[in-house]
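Extended Data, panel c. Modelled sequence:
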Amino acid sequence: MKKSVSALGLALLFCVSHAFAQQPVADDRLMADQCLSDIKIQYQTNPQITALLKGARIKEHAFVLERYDANVGSQHIASEINATVEQRDRVIGQILCLIDENKILYKTFFATQEQ
């Protein structure tokens, strides 16, 4: 009886951990999309960047959300997003966002040299 309970417990633990392991990917994508949206708002007074970012999106599978616990100066940072931005399947740049408690604290866009 103990062996079957242990096996059942391990199977349940695997299923639960697998379900939670898949969740951050969707959350990471949402956070990357939010970062790009915030950057579009940030640069709306710059006509060149606004034109470049019009219709831009995060390239599929080209974003990374690094989770860590550190201070930059006195500001706590919990995550960093780096993502490739494309427009009509052409890479136009990279974004960087620093996040704490699901709040974007810093965001910027780096255009590629090939425009």
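Residues 24-111 form one domain. This feature is highlighted in the accompanying rendering.
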